[in-house]
Amino acid sequence: MRKGDRKTKRGKIWFGTFGKLRRPLENEKRPESDVPDKPAKSY
Fold it and tell me: How far is CA 38 from CA 1, 11, 24, 32, in A?
């Protein structure tokens, strides 16, 4: 809820909902460029 939240608007949705569970996993393993792609499809 730090990186994606401040850089992209979609990051707020991602880290706001799924970020609570997958924050330590998705944040370290997956790059920031791949983060805004997932909430765009699932949301």
Answer: 15, 10, 16, 11
